[in-house]
Specification:
By secondary structure, this protein is of the alpha+beta class. 16% of the residues lie in helices and 36% in strands.
Length: 115
């Protein structure tokens, strides 16, 4: 739980995200298409030693940088990192909706969504 506390502290905070995988882009190694904007919070550190990754929900055009509100954490039971989930419009999402929206990538892992 100590590792998850590192991520859970971000829930309901406003963060700046650099979008390095915009909506419609293709994963460079695995070839799947990103159906949403995906990026990272600069100057943070995830379990893999890289910046903490963020899924951005509710935006339907490619982005480069944005301010978001973190609404959830996706814990990967079989990986060294977790992912944050964010929105820019304060829209509410259920755990089930989040699971569906990030399934394109999270289907490869055993996950739990925390809100």
């Amino acid at each position: 739980m100590i590792i998850m506390e590192h991520y859970l502290k971000y829930i309901d905070t406003i963060q700046t995200v650099i979008v390095d995988r915009p909506l419609g882009s293709v994963h460079p190694k695995w070839g799947y298409v990103y159906p949403l904007n995906y990026g990272y919070i600069p100057q943070t550190c995830a379990g893999d030693g890289e910046a903490i990754d963020v899924y951005i929900l509710g935006v339907f055009e490619p982005m480069k940088i944005c301010n978001v509100r973190i609404i959830a954490v996706i814990e990967r039971m079989d990986d060294v990192e977790a992912k944050l989930v964010a929105t820019i419009d304060h829209k509410k999402y259920t755990k089930e909706q989040i699971e569906v929206l990030v399934e394109f990538q999270e289907r490869f892992f055993e996950t739990t969504v925390y809100m």
